[in-house]
Amino acid sequence: MADHSVVIRVAFALCAMSAAAGCAAPQYDKPVGAFATATSDAQEALAGYSKGMVAAQEDRTRNSAVAAPYRVRSLAGECGPSSTRCRLVLYQQQGDPSPLYQPQDDPQPQAASPVASLPGVVTLMGRIARYAESLNAIVTSDSAASVETSAAAAGESISGIAALMPGAAPAGGNVKPSGSSIGWMKADALKQAVSRADPVLAKVPEAFGATAQQATVAMQAHMADVVAARRAAFRARSTRENLDRAAAAAEAYDAFLRNDATPAVVLNELVKAHADLNQALQSNASPAALAERMNAFQAHAARLAKSLGALQTAQAG
Q: CB 3.0–4.6 Å: which of 31, 134, 144, 210 could bond 153 by disulfide?
């Protein structure tokens, strides 16, 4: 097996020295396409997860307001005849206000929380998804000009990702592919972009993993509350409808607890998949060897989206 690997690398090197001899550049379009699809799926799932957490927080706040109506007030200086804003909040026992509603363009008045921080993870995933799209654009390009354009977009995306890392130095820069044919330009652009992005993405778990994990814990607490509320409703009025709602909530929460696809896990799988892609490109490994790793990442992203959908259905039921 080792000898066979050496033969592959030597053959690749010989082809690189003489592309005109008829050797073709390695075709990484399938694993890169799978990586881009999985990244997009993960981004959409995390965006939905973030919206679900905001809705859960709002639901808890409103329930607390019903239990303690005297704590519902307007923010200082608001809701008067000459005010420019009018926002009702629920003042907690320690004096911190929580919003009764949260417009998309409104900063949260209370201190930062895992729920408030989760949109940062969504922003990160959005930039990584754009980066993955640029990689896919490189491998599907049909002209030298489109390779160069997509390579430049990849460099910009890498810089955008690095900018979100706490204390990170600028990264990325121009990706300038070279080669004697479009095929070799694609291979070179892909190798440059991925090698520059990998050390940046390697910092993702440290920078965002704790927030993602805290959001998972917050979701568990919320779903436990939902199950308890559904059970209480069934005890108060033992109808088949209330029993079905309690069972659906419990089943969705149980599936979530047994699922190994949480936001933190998906972030780690993303980093591993990209590291494998980088290693394959730098060692000129067979593109087919990447398929299983990319599929594993895609499966985690799909499971996160599925479990989130079940939780949202149970919460609304």
A: 134
What's residue 44's pLDDT? 87
50-64, 220-234, 242-256, 298-312: the lowest-pLDDT one: 50-64
CA triplet 106, 112, 118: central angle to 5 degrees?
Answer: 80
Those residues whose C-beta lies under 8 Å from the C-beta of residue 211, and which sit 6 or more positions away, are 114, 117, 118, 120, 121
In a 13 Å sphere around the CA of 233, the CA atoms on its Cβ side amount to 17
The overall average pLDDT reported for the chain is 80
**Strand residues in the chain grouped as ranges (E):** 72-74, 88-91, 97-99
Please give the Cα distance from 52 to 311 (Å, whole number): 9
Q: Please, what's the largest Cα pairwise distance for the chain? A: 83
Q: Quickly state the pLDDT bin for 105 (edges 50, 70, 90).
A: very low
pLDDT tens-digit profile of 5-30? Answer: 443 344 344 454 444 433 556 678 88
Residue 262 and residue 232: Cα distance in Å, rounded? 28
d(CA 80, CA 71): 18
166-180, 230-244, 285-299, range with greatest mean pLDDT:
230-244
243 CB-side CA count, 13 A: 3
Q: Where are the alpha helices (DSSP H) in 80-143?
A: 114-139
Rounded to whole angstroms, how far apart are CA atoms 155 and 189? 10
What pLDDT, on the 0 to 100 scale, is given for residue 7? 35
- Name beta bridge partners: 72: 90
* Structure token digits, residue 231: 């059970």
pLDDT value, residue 13:
45
CA distances from 123 to 73, 126, 279, 300 (A): 32, 5, 26, 19
Check if the beta carbon of residue 186 is closer than 8 Å to that of residue 25: yes
Q: How far apart are CA 35 and CA 41, in angstroms?
A: 10
